[in-house]
């Protein structure tokens, strides 16, 4: 599947010129840039490529082993892939209203489970969005990866861009059918269940994404006793011991955001009543990363493109450990790699935290 990845810096005019110098007649352009540059960048790309579909977001991008929050990164797809894009406005209200359109788009390109994926960027309401999308996509066996927009200045709303316009409270998406071969999605978790006990969420506040009680006891008390730390250390401990929702052999991470005055642990992912919860342990991330790449290379003899979403907490932890540049360089060895750093990740029917998700195209 033909694609081009580009990068540019400086003013939006200069950055677009640099990033698109090798892009001719694309069908789709996806981009990520800074908050301040997003609106102008979106307009410039739409003006330069009026026949292409343009979608983007704000934040820090990753492109072929490079990452810089001040840069514009783009990836272009061409006519050897069938791609339809769209925007779901007012995503916090009723995303299910737009699922009929997405179902029609899937049919229009002849989407199939082994060669089609949905790649989306959303400003929020992830659980409802993912549930709505999965109800439509699962009927055709179509996989989903996506990311929550991260990087708006304090006091400003997160935004996404679509065809020259900027939207708050919205999701933009691309349905990508690879006519050149297969596509497959992966979820990488660098945290392990270990031997810690299982707990059950007995009281929650879904609206605030707060875990109030575990096993009928105050959630913060349970966490602090198990780890031997004070309650005021719980949030800072998120890099080493986040919480995970356990479903069979799968673990879906929920990052701690805050401990409120009631001792409730507020999270970035909703925990529902009766969810099985375990406090996780950071694994050997270098070995885990290597196994993920080995799995991908086993599944694909030739890779044309990798689209990914990395959690900002992974980005911060890897940066603190001086591993991030090594990680993105290793990812680039798989093939062309375009990724975003997000505030949350979506994978098929789940919204998760502190995870890497990716779609790999033959």
Please describe what this structure looks like:
The chain is α+β, with helices and mostly antiparallel strands and 362 residues long. Strands 14, 15, 16, 17, 18, 19, 20 and 21 form an 8-stranded antiparallel sheet that branches. The protein has a 6-stranded mixed sheet with strand order 1-5-2-3-9-10. A 6-stranded mixed sheet has the order 6-11-7-8-25-26, with helices on one face. The chain is built from 8 helices and 27 strands. A hairpin with a 5-residue loop joins strand 19 and strand 20. Helix 3 crosses helix 4.
Short description:
The protein is 24% helix and 38% strand.
* Strands, count: 27
Number of helices: 8
Please state the average pLDDT score.
Answer: 97
Q: Roughly what fraction of the amino acids lie in strands?
A: 35-45%
Coarse structural class: alpha+beta
Shape: globular
**How much helix, percentage-wise, in residues?**
10-25%
The unreliable regions are none
From the N-terminal CA to the C-terminal CA, the straight-line distance is 7 Å
Q: Give the assembly state of these chains.
A: single chain
Spatial extent as radius of gyration: 20 Å
Largest sheet, in brief, is:
8 strands, antiparallel
């Amino acid at each position: 599947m033909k694609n081009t990845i580009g990068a540019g810096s400086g003013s939006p005019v200069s950055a677009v010129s640099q990033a698109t110098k090798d892009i001719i007649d694309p069908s789709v352009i996806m981009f990520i840039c800074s908050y301040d540059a997003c609106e102008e960048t979106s307009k410039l790309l739409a003006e330069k490529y009026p026949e292409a579909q343009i979608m983007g977001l704000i934040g820090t991008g990753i492109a072929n082993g490079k990452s810089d929050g001040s840069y514009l990164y783009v990836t272009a797809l061409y006519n050897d892939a069938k791609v339809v894009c769209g925007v779901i406005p007012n995503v916090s209200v009723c995303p299910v209203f737009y699922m009929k359109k997405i179902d029609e788009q899937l049919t229009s390109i002849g989407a199939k489970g082994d060669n089609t994926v949905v790649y989306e960027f959303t400003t929020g309401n992830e659980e409802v969005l993912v549930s709505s999308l999965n109800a439509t996509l699962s009927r055709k066996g179509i996989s989903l990866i996506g990311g929550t927009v991260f990087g708006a200045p304090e006091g400003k709303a997160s935004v996404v861009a679509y065809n020259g316009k900027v939207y708050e409270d919205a999701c933009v998406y691309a349905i990508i059918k690879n006519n050149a071969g297969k596509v497959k999605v992966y979820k990488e978790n660098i945290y392990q269940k270990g031997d810690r006990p299982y707990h059950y969420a007995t009281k929650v506040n879904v609206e605030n994404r707060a875990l109030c009680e575990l096993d009928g006891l105050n959630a913060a008390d349970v966490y602090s006793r198990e780890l031997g730390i004070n309650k005021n250390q719980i949030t800072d401990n998120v890099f080493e011991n986040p919480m995970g929702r356990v479903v069979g052999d799968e673990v879906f991470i929920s990052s701690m955001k805050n401990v409120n005055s009631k001792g409730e642990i507020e999270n970035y992912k909703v925990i529902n009543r009766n969810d099985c919860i375990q406090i996780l342990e950071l694994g050997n991330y270098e070995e885990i990363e290597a196994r993920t790449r080995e799995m991908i290379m086993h599944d694909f003899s030739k890779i044309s493109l990798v689209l990914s979403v990395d959690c900002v907490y992974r980005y911060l932890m890897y940066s603190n450990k001086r591993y991030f540049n090594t990680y993105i360089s290793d990812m680039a060895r798989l093939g062309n790699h375009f990724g975003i750093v997000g505030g949350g990740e979506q994978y098929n029917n789940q919204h998760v935290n502190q995870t890497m998700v990716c779609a790999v195209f033959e």
